[in-house]
Amino acid sequence: MGFTILSPGGFASNAFAWAEPVRARRIVFAPFADVALPVIDPADIAEVAAAALREDGHAGRTYELAGPEAISPRGQAAVISEALGEEVALVELSREEAHTRMARFMPEEVIDGTLDVLGVPLPAEQKASPDVERILRRPARSFGAWVARNLPAFRWSPPWGARKTPLPPGRTAGPKPDHAHRPRPESARSAGRGHLGTTAPLISPPLAGAEPQPRSAAPARPALEAGQRAPLTESPGLPSRPR
User: Fold this and answer.
1) What pLDDT, in 10s, does the model give residues 32-49?
2) What is the dihedral of CA 68, 73, 75, 79, to 10 degrees?
3) Which of 26, 79, 171, 236 is 20 to 30 A from 204, alpha carbon to alpha carbon?
């Protein structure tokens, strides 16, 4: 059986770890703020993999996949800032602070090696590789191109229900409806879930002076017939571990 080895460096998509602090406070946290590495767009990795599977001439080869140029965390923050049109501050973490943060989602035996690559990379790890351009016949995507494609992840969005379009001239916004005091149909009060996905409270506070009512027992599940399997329930997938 033939094989092709793809050896990518740092992923541009690791910047998704900054999405929440950028949205909330326009700030990012990173160690080794001025150490540059040629991060690669995961879309380029996927296209190289597809080419290796569909085209001849790749069997037995090893490809070093990297972005078109090395860029530091400070440079990445500047690219995000320019794309947003707002300043994004960078707070540089010490190695110890970065170790503590990474321990929340990364095995201990991997952390030190990762920090070594980020802080003291080998010369080969800082060079842009020509393999992506050689295989795809175009330059590798830049970090700026990745940010432009994923910019909504870093933008602040108004809360759900907030008005997103301006009012017509001469009109003013009226008071918000008080849904808490709107009467509800008796069927919706008694049912655990109403129509169109609306959900009634699972536990309602007792009225003042009312006697506590015994909780009704949950309905028993129907017995399964011979040879019938119980329905499977979905479970959330585990989050991917950043490289």
Assistant:
1) 999 999 999 999 999 999
2) 90
3) 236
